[in-house]
């Protein structure tokens, strides 16, 4: 499972330093770039909305194999796209494969948490962040020295190899039989009736808007507004992901000791402070440090919210996870084009300042994540 999270993060992180090249290579505006990134989010949300049903029919291991192997090719296809129409198709497919892979791997992690009655989600996401750090840190340097196509080809080969090997060792959960009860429990378009899962999804939405903004726009912010080169600009997301990785590897212990709600509250206010400083930073190095501090806070927010979504009363982990991840990734669907439009007429600095306010809202709502606690009497029956 760790290798799957690592590969997903590596592909996502490797995309970040490709963005400035993507902008100049296709000779497009920031707003058009935002629309193309919007298609990445649209692909992700489309796949995520189907994943709960696919996992219930085929199991998370099979779904991971489908989406993971296709996803490993996505960055190379985007890098090869010669014009905007083909780039749009490539972005939709890339986003769909990454998004479907995301739901399946997180649903599998929730199953493991239930069996162990303790948190492992943060450590799993730690491998995702480690992959993001490697992809972002090495990407800018590789592109600057060897070109964007060579970089995409190497990323594709490494990700494909990791995923192909890792899926053989994943635990396959029991697949439900297709009797009447199974069909009733897994209708394609049935929405959960418990409103709490949607509130948790809203917190994931606000958190992932902020995380996605760093992924999609931090490198461009440093390059165009703070005057640094591509190699240094790529360090913004690398620092963000690197600190997230470290914090996520210790996050399960922190969460098990202090509780999910307290951990979420402290994390949200730290992330808000980091995002605020990044938006006000007068120099690229201060901005990079601020994005790293923001990663320190955001690190355990998404894992806690995913655990809370996957442990809601009256629904399977796959159903709850599908709702929360779909809502969360809707931030990646809506935010890029909106940020691109605002940046066309303003600058990125005020945008990052505004995003810090969204993280304050998550701080105020943190008590709703109590289902991520692992009290003995809350352990789900098998």
TrEMBL record:
The keyword Transmembrane helix applies. The keyword Membrane applies. Residues 1-374 form the Major facilitator superfamily (MFS) profile domain. It comes from the Bacteria. CDD domains: MFS_MosC_like. It is a multi-pass membrane protein. SUPFAM superfamilies: MFS general substrate transporter (SSF103473). InterPro entries: MFS, MFS_dom, MFS_trans_sf, MFS_Transporter. Keywords: Membrane, Transmembrane, Transmembrane helix. It is found in: Membrane. PANTHER family: BYPASS OF STOP CODON PROTEIN 6, INNER MEMBRANE PROTEIN YBJJ. This is MFS family arabinose efflux permease. It comes from Mesorhizobium robiniae.
């Amino acid at each position: 499972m760790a290798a799957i999270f690592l590969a997903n993060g590596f592909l996502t992180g490797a995309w970040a330093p490709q963005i400035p090249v993507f902008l100049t290579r296709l000779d497009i505006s920031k707003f058009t770039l935002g629309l193309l990134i919007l298609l990445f989010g649209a692909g992700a949300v489309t796949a995520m909305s189907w994943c709960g049903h696919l996992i219930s029919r085929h199991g998370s291991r099979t779904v991971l194999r489908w989406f993971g192997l296709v996803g490993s090719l996505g960055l190379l296809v985007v890098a090869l796209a010669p014009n905007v129409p083909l780039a749009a198709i490539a972005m939709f497919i890339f986003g769909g494969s990454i998004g479907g892979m995301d739901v399946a791997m997180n649903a599998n992690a929730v199953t493991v948490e239930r069996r162990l009655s303790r948190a492992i989600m943060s450590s799993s996401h730690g491998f995702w962040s480690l992959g993001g750090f490697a992809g972002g840190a090495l990407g800018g340097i590789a592109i600057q020295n060897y070109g964007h196509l060579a970089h995409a080809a190497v990323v594709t080969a490494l990700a494909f190899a990791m995923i192909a090997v890792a899926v053989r060792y994943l635990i396959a959960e029991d697949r439900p039989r297709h009797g009447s009860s199974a069909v009733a429990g897994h209708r394609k378009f049935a929405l959960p009736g418990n409103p709490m899962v949607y509130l948790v999804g809203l917190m994931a939405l606000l958190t992932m808007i902020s995380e996605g903004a760093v992924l999609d726009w931090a490198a461009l912010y440093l390059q165009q507004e703070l005057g640094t080169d591509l190699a240094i600009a790529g360090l913004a997301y690398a620092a963000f992901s690197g600190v997230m990785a470290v914090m996520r590897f210790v996050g399960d212990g922190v969460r098990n000791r202090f509780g999910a709600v307290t951990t979420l509250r402290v994390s949200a206010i730290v992330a808000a402070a980091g995002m605020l400083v990044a938006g006000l930073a007068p120099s690229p190095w201060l901005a990079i440090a601020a994005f790293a501090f923001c990663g320190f806070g955001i690190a355990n927010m998404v894992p806690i919210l995913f655990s809370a979504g996957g442990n809601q009363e009256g629904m399977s982990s796959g159903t709850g996870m599908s709702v929360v991840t779909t809502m969360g990734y809707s931030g990646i669907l809506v935010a890029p084009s909106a940020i691109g439009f605002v940046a066309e007429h303003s600058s990125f600095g005020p945008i990052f300042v505004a995003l810090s306010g969204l993280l304050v809202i998550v701080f105020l709502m943190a008590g709703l994540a109590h289902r991520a606690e692992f009290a003995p009497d809350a352990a789900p029956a098998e």
